[in-house]
Amino acid sequence: MARDLSLLIPEMLLAVTVVLMLVSEMLRAPRLALGIGVIGLGLATALTLPLLETDTSVFGGTYRIDLLSAWAKLILLPGTALALLMARAEIAGKDREGSVYALLCLVTLGALMLSGGGDMMMLVLGVVLTGLGSFALVAWPRDDPATEAAMKYLVFGSVTGSVMIYGLSFWFGGTGSTLFSELGRLEGRTLIALAGLTAVLIGLGYKAALVPFQFWAPDAYDGAPMSVAAYLSVITKVAAIFAFAQILRDLPVSTGWPMVVALIAAMTMTFGYLAALVQSNVVRLLAYSSVAQAGYFMMGIVDLGPGSLALPSVIVFGAAYVAMNLGAFAVIMVAGRSLDDFRGFGRARPVIGVAMVVFLLSLTGIPPLFGFVGKVLLFGAAIEAGYLWLAVIGILNSVLALAVYLRIVVPMYQPREAGQDSAAPAPPLMIVLGATALVTLFMGLLAGVFPG
Amino acid sequence: MPLLSLSVFLPLLGGLLLLALPRKSARTAHGISIGTTGLTFLVTLAIWARGTLPGGFAQVEEIAWIPAIGAAYRLGIDGLSLPLILMTSLLFFLSSIYAARITDRPAVFVVLMLMLETASIGTFAALDALLFYVFFEVSLVGMYFMIVGWGYEERQRAGLMFFIYTLLGSLPLLLAIIGLFLATGSFDMRLWIDMPPLTGLAAMLALVAMLFTFAVKIPAFPVHTWLPAAHVQAPTVGSVILAGVMLKFGTYGLIRFALQMTPEAFAQAGQVVLAFGVFSAIYGAFAALAQSDLKKMIAYTSVNHMGYVVMAVAVAALTIDADLRAVALNGAALQMVSHGIVTGSLFFLVGMLQSRAHSREMAGFGGLLGQVPWLGWAFILSVFASLGLPGLAHFPAEFQIFLATLNAQPWAIAAILAIVITAGLYLRAIAAVFLGERNGKWADMPDLDRGEKLAIVPLLVLIVLIGVAPSWLLGMMDATMRALQF
Q: For a disulfide at B95, which of A297, B86, B183, B237, Cβ 3.0-4.6 Å?
């Protein structure tokens, strides 16, 4: 018991942090809540470092302390801290400010449950915990678009969540256990394996915004505060992808699941970028782009099982994606939601303009940026798994991606119209922009620190 | 001293220095630019002085990068890459001299140009496939912003087309690189060259992917369509770098990757590649013949000249006679350098003409030779070199290419038709622009100023030098080409 708890120190620390943040919100001290949150997240990150080499599980195999869950903490906790700063820049001084901070951290706790879960119950717990907090966050502005977005998100979430629980019962029936590590018993029982897989794809696919469960994403991102949209597009998505990795690495490949995932990956990235190509609202454009990026993530998932590149590719691209997508959203917070707001933005604010170009090129996968290293590993994973066609589709979509992102870059360097002026970014936003830009620029060159 | 790394990163450091300066006047920007590229040129001369090894790579520098997947920072040179590196650093040096007249956002322009130099030298010096790809792609970004920021009327469309087209072109190479990596567990290009890891269908797929990438870059028919648009709209320095340096990425990759890493598959596909080379050469010549825009015409002759390189590499792959191979590959390597010098000079001169007349239409000029003798004679000399006149830079290269072709694949000698057409179209251009009736409209056109002469004269000297005495370059190439393993 003591051993189990000692391995859970980062998670427990985060839970305590959330409680303290709620208390300070009750005291009407949002800045205190923010401070506690940032410090708590930082401490939890630091305390994860000693666990990096550990590969074990706690509480009878229901929660895994392994490479994936350790890196999930190293990626998601700092990512959440950045999201807190973005939220501060957006909603400082508004009503119920502290509850946003507390909810963000609470959702991250759920995200950690997802990415470390070794058991169906833990999976459901993670899905519900991330879901509940997210609904409230989307509805936070209390206006019509936000309420509509949150309702859509909630209804979608409840239905997919229930379907997932129903489908998991097939796996439970087939293996007689709720542990993922027992999924190997489904060898040769293709029908049961695929029934459960379908349900998991629905439940987690909704969280990761995979096609065809992506409908909520553009509406929710557009209705929610921009910092919440940024948060949802990275933290819950990466957590859902990591949950896929935890589940599917134990499912026998012979049941044919990689083909199903490969098809979904191909559909997701193609649809995402095609839809992004026609958006004129930059938030919706990035929403569809993040749908497409989820498809790229799934290329790494295809290689799970025998492959050696699956976990490194998902982890590296996860880290890159968190940095570059948060950065891109932070720039939108400075520039504005419409494509027209970007006209001449690069000339008016050269440094932030260059940062945006870096984020967008990294999202495209141009070397030597961080996103490129992730994508190389993802393509490698797909080829290693024998899905050359998927890598080819991924590459064709990278070209589409460039067309999508250049739609933002091109107007940035056109002459600025008179009367347009964007306010100087708040200091917390500058920290976020600086940190994400540095990571996106240089982590690719230092990619040696990541597991191979 | 790690001279190679120095030559690769010196330009980038210069760019960063410029960015760090608080006040970036045009003078300081161009001063830093000329200083850095000049210093880089000196460093590459020192690399030349250190020399190459007859077989394998010399002056290798290696630092771990992502050890988990066997990717490292590896640089090195041989007789194929060293001449290209020298040509690159020279062209950038001269470009920065010529660019000193740019007053529109000079600091940004200089930073982009220096970034491009780092990418270009890095591409030729990389011995790690992932590193090669990094440099290869970074050059795209730099060139895109150069075209979009400082190009002519249609620059937005041309830049977009260039970026998307060439990104689509280069991604198949990434697949091939990943395929080679999965077969060996390392990105070390030397490993792949010493013992080509792929066989059978996998090798053929990798070859097709690489050929597509390099054909776009070269550019060869039918994936050359980005070139005229990009060239015509690019600023003069952009055209010089694009034609002089970046097209060589394609032909360099054709030898370094396609020929050396999948030799068996290349030999099987040799006839097809040869046919594409021949067709490209003839097509480029005919397309150039149809142009009335000087810059577009020169752009299409690049398709023609690069077609000869493709032919030479295919001939080398198809023959087993070691001497013939060396002749073909020497011709290919020399043709790359000659084309960089000659076409670089031609694009400079057309740019100088355009900056005076704000027009590139041949029909609108006439009798300019008396008006601007420096510009006229420099243009005529470069044009004679470009059409392959003996004693000038292209002749020794094309002679070797056709010699090897005639011996190994006689049918492909049909490409010699292209030389006749090129000669015709160039003579027509000279007649239209510099001879005949004087057009009074240009009566006050000034001749080349000091800066322009400084940029152009070294190229003219080299054109003659390579034409008369190519042995100092060929000696360097020949030692490597004879030992080339494939």
A: B237
Q: Indicate the pTM of the whole model.
A: 0.92
Q: Is the Cβ of B19 closer than 8 Å to some Cβ of chain A?
A: no
Q: Do B141 and A361 touch (CB under 8 A)?
A: yes
Residue of A nearest to B64 (CA): A448
Both structure tokens of B321:
């006679």
| DSSP-based three-state secondary structure for B441 | helix
Q: Tell me the pairing of strands B58-66 and B71-77.
A: antiparallel
Q: What per-residue confidence (pLDDT) applies to B360?
A: 86
Task: Tell me how far apart the alpha carbons of residues A74 and A47 are, in angstroms, rounded to a whole number.
Answer: 10
- Is the pLDDT at A452 greater than 70, yes or no? no
Position B485 scores a pLDDT of 63
Domain that holds residue A121: 1-243
Give the burial class of A452: count Cβ atoms within 10 A of its Cβ; 0-12 exposed, 13-18 middle, 19 or more buried: middle
Token representation of residue B151: 């190009």
* H or E, element range at B397: helix B394-408
Kindly state whether residue A250 falls inside one of the protein's structural domains. Answer: no
> B319: helix, coil or strand?
coil
Give CA B342 to chain center in angstroms: 11
pLDDT at A348: 87
**Cβ atoms < 10 Å from Cβ of A2:** 6
Clarify whether residues A185 and A226 are in a common domain.
yes
Q: Which residues of A touch B68 (CB under 8 A)?
A: 312, 448, 450-452
A227 lies in the same domain as A333: no
Report yes or no: B267 at the A interface, CB cutoff 8 Å: no
DSSP secondary structure letter of residue A369: S
Q: Which two tokens stand for residue B353?
A: 């003409």
Phi, psi of A64 (to 5 degrees): -100, 135
Residue recorded with tokens 């591409």:
B123
Contact B191, B183 (CB under 8 A): no
Q: What is the mean pLDDT of chain A?
A: 91
SS3 call for B94: helix
Q: What residues of B are in contact with residue A452 (Cβ under 8 Å)?
A: 66-69
Given a contact cutoff of 8 angstroms between Cβ atoms, the answer to whether B61 and B88 are in contact is: no
CA B485, CA A64: separation in Å to the nearest integer?
Answer: 51
| Residues B74-105 pLDDT 10s | 999 998 999 999 999 999 999 999 999 888 88
Within-domain flag for A78: yes
Q: Which residue has the higher pLDDT, B179 or B54?
A: B179
Q: Is residue A224 located within the same domain as residue A295? A: no
